[in-house]
């Protein structure tokens, strides 16, 4: 229990923490976050069957021609340890998702003391928007996954049967969910960099065509299936979110430039104002 005891930063007179206090604080936060993930992983093992049934639905929605048994949705196990590792992967992913609120809070609590008040507010808004955007991307991947799988498996000759292993399918599924979810966060990162003054709208607008092209290239390379349907279903929402982020950056920069111009005029008027001098005879 001593490892989980919160350290009290009181080493320096200006309220700053020493290096060792930072290390102890990071250790305590990491231990708490890991324990939360472990607890979520245990729940994942307990509720493996309904979780796996949910993850398997995109494959089960495929036409019957791709199934070995016309009445059942079957995947195959090749290795001795494949079943265990599939359970472990599913449980770990479930644990990461379920405990995300707690370990994100631990990360936030560790970073917050080094931020200004306005930066803390922006970070809270960033995290608040990141969760629904990631969820939207993962949900899109879940609902279009069967289209990509059907297209790829459809290239097999008519006299062959696809024996998809459970491990390959799980890797494909988790990769699609993660890639789509993280990709939907890229426009939010653009806005965040603009808010903190790192990235300007003029810079993005100057390279707009190149950015759109790179989004399509990224979609083609990042999607695990690399089929045109999945690529377009990832690229088109990313381009749309990119233009939304660009519009937000435009209005923010215009407001910021107007405020800076007004501040500069106020300083100039103050410097150009009447100068009073004292009478040396008084």
From TrEMBL:
Keyword Cell inner membrane: no
Localization (cell): Cell membrane; Membrane
Listed transmembrane segments: 30-48, 90-111, 123-145, 172-198, 210-226, 232-251
Swiss-Prot/TrEMBL keywords: Cell membrane, Membrane, Protein transport, Translocation, Transmembrane, Transmembrane helix, Transport
CC per GO annotation: TAT protein transport complex
Domain of life of the native organism: Bacteria
Pfam families: TatC
Topology versus the membrane: Multi-pass membrane protein
GO MF, one annotated term: proton motive force dependent protein transmembrane transporter activity
Record's function text: Part of the twin-arginine translocation (Tat) system that transports large folded proteins containing a characteristic twin-arginine motif in their signal peptide across membranes. Together with TatB, TatC is part of a receptor directly interacting with Tat signal peptides.
Family affiliation: Belongs to the TatC family.
Subunit structure: The Tat system comprises two distinct complexes: a TatABC complex, containing multiple copies of TatA, TatB and TatC subunits, and a separate TatA complex, containing only TatA subunits. Substrates initially bind to the TatABC complex, which probably triggers association of the separate TatA complex to form the active translocon.
NCBIfam families the UniProt entry points to: tatC (TIGR00945)
Designated name of the protein: Sec-independent protein translocase protein TatC
Species, as recorded: Sphaerimonospora thailandensis
């Amino acid at each position: 229990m001593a490892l989980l005891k919160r350290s009290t930063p009181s080493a320096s007179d200006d309220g700053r923490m020493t290096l060792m206090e930072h290390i102890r604080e990071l250790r305590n936060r990491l231990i708490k976050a890991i324990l939360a993930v472990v607890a979520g992983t245990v729940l994942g093992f307990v509720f493996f069957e309904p979780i796996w049934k949910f993850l398997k639905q995109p494959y089960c929605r495929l036409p019957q021609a791709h199934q070995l048994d016309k009445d059942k949705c079957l995947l195959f196990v090749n290795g001795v340890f494949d079943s265990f590792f599939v359970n472990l992967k599913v449980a770990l992913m479930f644990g990461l998702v379920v405990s995300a609120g707690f370990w994100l809070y631990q990360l936030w609590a560790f970073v917050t003391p080094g931020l200004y008040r306005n930066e803390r507010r922006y970070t809270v808004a960033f995290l608040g928007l990141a969760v629904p955007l990631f969820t939207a991307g993962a949900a899109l991947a879940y609902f279009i996954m069967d289209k990509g799988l059907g297209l790829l498996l459809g290239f097999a000759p008519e006299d062959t049967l696809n024996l998809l292993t459970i491990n390959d399918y799980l890797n494909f599924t988790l990769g699609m969910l993660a890639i789509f979810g993280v990709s939907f966060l890229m426009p939010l990162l653009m806005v965040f960099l603009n808010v903190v003054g790192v990235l300007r709208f003029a810079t993005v607008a100057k390279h707009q065509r190149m950015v759109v092209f790179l989004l399509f290239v990224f979609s083609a390379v990042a999607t695990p299936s690399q089929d045109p349907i999945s690529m377009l279903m990832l690229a088109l929402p990313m381009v749309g979110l990119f233009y939304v982020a660009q519009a937000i950056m435009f209005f923010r920069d215009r407001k910021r430039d107007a405020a800076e111009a007004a501040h500069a005029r106020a300083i100039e008027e103050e410097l150009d104002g009447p100068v009073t001098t004292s009478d040396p005879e008084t």
